[in-house]
Amino acid sequence: MSLDENKALAKRLYIEVFGAGNMGAADEILAPDCVSHAADAPPMIGPDQIKRQAFVLRGAIPDLVSTLEDQVAEGDRVASRWIGSGTNTGALMLPTGAIPATGKTIRFGELRIDRFANGRIVESWFIPDRLALWQQLGVLPAPAPTPKA
62-66 contacts: CB < 8 A, separation 24 or more? Predict the structure, then answer.
């Protein structure tokens, strides 16, 4: 596949799976044995990890809108920066328990590198901005404003 085709496929992941909630698209985009590397977790195999992540986010933010901000492609890899935004009207399910809905407008980002083979994503490395998300949800305190000189 061409670089532009790989970029379009990566974009589908954010727009269709996360933005539209089309979990079936994950099976078209990701190889059955794809490997996902989160910055703070062991590698996960298969598309179910992405589906779970999208399901959890869409449960907490049902009107989630995904916007692709930047993409760069070289060789068999595509690097993307996308933004998720919406209203937190559902509980956010975390391994430590549920965080109740706040009714707040939420905005967070993610950096992701996808490796492609045979027309599908076969490996990904991603870093979501959980700090910004958790601060907006009140799980962690927001930083104090910087005093003006």
Answer: 62/86, 62/87, 62/89, 62/90, 63/87, 63/89, 64/18, 64/19, 64/21, 65/19, 66/14, 66/15, 66/18, 66/19
Domain 3-137 has CATH 3.10.450.50: yes
Structure tokens at 96: 């430590």
pTM score, whole prediction? 0.88
Do the strands 30-38 and 44-45 form a parallel or antiparallel pair, or are they unpaired?
Answer: antiparallel
Angle formed at CA 24 by CA 69 and CA 50, multiple of 5 degrees: 55
- Residue type, position 61, single letter: I
pLDDT in tens, 102-146: 999 999 999 999 999 999 999 999 999 988 988 998 888 887 788
Q: How is the chain split into domains, by residue range?
A: 3-137
